[in-house]
Amino acid sequence: MNILKANYINPSMNIVREAYRILENCGLVVGITDTLYGIFADPFRDECVSKVYVAKKRSRKPIPLLASSPKAVFSITDADHFLQRFLETIWPGPITVVLKPMDNMFSEKIHLGTGKIGFRVPASPLPRKLAQLNGGFITGTSANISGLKPARNIDEAIKQLGNNVDLYIDSGTAPIGEPSTVIDLTSEKPIIVRDGAVSYRSIIHLYKHIVLKNHD
């Protein structure tokens, strides 16, 4: 277990590259996002995602992903022009959107055979830069044992996850301090999966304004 400090606004690329080296070797990194601290791992390999489950002491449950940019998500989904506009409006930010990728590029342990994955582009630069080095995506599940309180700072993460994580990156306290709101857009009508940092009502209002009215 190693601990490094990184500036929230402008994390050192040396630290980002060190984190990427660990992901390349199928290790786990804990770092800050705009909402909470997250566990970053390579989502393309089963053995790497399995380590996330072990660290969280978690039974099988889908794992959300953090993306380097909205364009990274557009490149693997069939989001039309209006949905892309909606996603560009809400990202970067604390909203996770469940979509269906066009192929099976990610580990089955991410989506558990559903074909549906929650994507988010966080406002914090560290995970975006790390995702950019890692093919556009990293895991983004919260840094805690399943069922316990998610970590807002590095001490809370270390207390729960300990030596199951290879590198902890300390960037202070996560600014929002609560989980992202999760919305499923894989069916005709948007479905709220989890309440969080942004009200469901405001998301639906924006979705109707940008997407639905243009599909009528």
Could you give a short description of this structure?
With 216 residues, the protein is of the alpha/beta class.
Give an overview in words.
The chain is an alpha/beta fold and 216 residues long. The protein is built from eight helices and eleven strands. The strands form two sheets. The protein has a six-stranded mixed β-sheet with strand order 7-4-6-5-10-11. Strand 10 and strand 11 (191-194) form a beta hairpin.
Which helices and strands occur, and which strands form pairs?
Layout: E1 2-5, H1 13-24, E2 29-32, E3 37-40, H2 46-56, E4 65-67, H3 70-74, H4 81-90, E5 95-99, H5 108-111, E6 117-120, H6 125-133, E7 137-139, E8 141-142, H7 154-161, E9 167-170, E10 181-184, E11 191-194, H8 200-215
Parallel strand pairs: 1-9, 2-9, 4-6, 5-10
Antiparallel strand pairs: 2-3, 3-8, 4-7, 5-6, 10-11
The name CATH uses for the topology is DHBP synthase
Number of domains in the coordinates? 1
Mean pLDDT: 96
Q: Regarding CATH, which class?
A: Alpha Beta
What is the assigned CATH homologous superfamily?
A: DHBP synthase
Tell me roughly what share of residues is in helical segments: 25-40%
CATH architecture designation? Alpha-Beta Complex
Distance between the termini: 54 Å
| Beta strands, count | 11
Pairing-aware structural class of the strands and helices?
alpha/beta
Low-pLDDT sequence parts: none
H/E series: EHEEHEHHEHEHEEHEEEH
Tell me the number of helical segments per DSSP (H or I, 4 or more residues long): 8
**Biggest sheet, spatial arrangement of strands:** 7-4-6-5-10-11
Characterize the main sheet. Answer: 6 strands, mixed
Outline type: globular
Backbone CA Rg: 16 Å
Strand content: 15-25%
